[in-house]
Amino acid sequence: MDLEQLERAYLTVRRELLNEQTDRGYWLGELSSSALSTATAVAALHLSPFPDVSLVSGGLKWLAEHQNADGGWGDTVRSHSNISTTMLCRAAFHITGQTETYAAVLQGCEQWLSQRYGRTPQELAEAVRNRYGKDRTFSVPILMMCALGKLIDWREVPRLPYELAALPQSWYRFAKMPVVSYALPALIAIGQVIHHHRGIGFPVTGFLRWLTRSRTLKVLRKIQPASGGYLEATPLTSFVCMSLSAAGLGKHRVVEKGIEFLKSSVRADGSWPIDTDLAIWVTTLSVNALASASELNQLPQASTLLDWLLAQQSKTIHPYTGAAAGAWGWTYHSGSVPDCDDTPGALLALRHLAWVTDRLPEVIIPTIRGQEWILNLQNRDGGFPTFCKGWGQLPFDRSGNDLTAHALRALYEEKPTPQQKASVLRGFAYLSGQQRPDGSWLPLWFGNQHAPDDENPVYGTARVLAAYRDWKKIDTAEAQRGIAFLLSCQNEDGGWGGAKQTPSSLEETALVVEMLADTLGIEHPQVQRGVEYLVQNVLQEGYKSATPIGFYFAKLWYFEKLYPVIFLVAALGKVRRMLATQQGDKDHVHS
Questions:
Q1: Does the pLDDT of residue 20 top 90, yes or no?
Q2: Does 210 share its domain with 306?
């Protein structure tokens, strides 16, 4: 291992990370521009009573310029073409009446679709439904937008039981909704526009929908955040706005606020990101990465950052999901929702910041509240979901391996309470039952576009092993199988991708190197090869190009420019620290 190059590489990414810190000590990051977000925003703006011709034109121009060479569109400019985003982009050009202007673009799009999914509206609609199965969270919005563009018949768009939103919030988890918890605004708005265009249908349910129309609109307004953006997400907000506009409700306050959000979140190049930002998430990742490197003393604003992070803890019951106080979401903006990935990340960061600032007493009560919030979210199967306990088996409402491991890490105490002990035992039992025969675990929130079924067992396994490490269970049989799986996935170039025989990336390689350095030691030959891969790519400035590694919503991709930098600081910093400790031990022996 070339120690001089390792030092150069580490100092490079550490400098890059610290340079991204804001005046208040936190990080904002930057999410990728999204063709899907841009297409939906353009349609919503065009259909609303508050249009902006220049934004619509700019968005269409951006879409045309970022069409993939094969004629389709992926979610990001580095993503493979997929049917969902391609169908939405196609619909945007039709809804806005710009088919002649962009005839060549649409010709390529039609060719891509016909070669893979068929030519008729019925074949394309069926292909969309097949992609998502029983989960209608995203298939129905896509088909709805296609129907607005007169590309398919409204009969191809499944109805959504928006009348269920009129139930008391505490009953939602018993209602067996066909969408996940975060998609409640879409259930209401899209359900209404489908009802508007398809008519009553079955008399009893039709009457219920007519009866609850006004009440569910009040729910929609009640859960709309101050920013106007549901979840701070462009697609979800756009679907709500275009649905209400197309149902004759374009002047509703929800649409007005939603369009304000869309206008305020457009980028200079005419595109929209998938979400406003992941400020809390990338901040806690950054703090925990520097802690892994034992470099929190490099944070001159650590105390200011601690104040900021404490201020982001929720103080009241959340109007959207009914989540109790005491948790964190992914950003400080009003559209954020408390969840079981950001809350554990925040608790781990609080622990580190409290030690480095000597302010441990101040974080005791916030930590207890956060841990109680996590404990109360645990599902019957022993795992932890993203947002809501017991909502069902649809993605993001069911338990997840990466979420469960993160929650267990946040619950770690040298002397845990009886409740914590019981919860942790159930959590590890869940993880043990979820391990696949090859030793891997699948994550819920992260994927890899090069891997079969877009899965990312490398990310999931690395994240789960962190919980086994923290709770000193790394010698268990399942943890050892997980380590063996990671070792089996290393590529010839020394790096790792999302699964076996997938292209190496800095993100996945850094995650694996950090974990294997902890569990196998820095002298292990595969760890050293991984470090060499990271160092050489950093010195070639590979960290400046993030890889699509994230899911958002249902099979919706993004990349975040800080991910490679953060993961590299954690991995290279840990190796650097372990080498320094090793050298110090040798010097002590010699002396």
A1: yes
A2: no
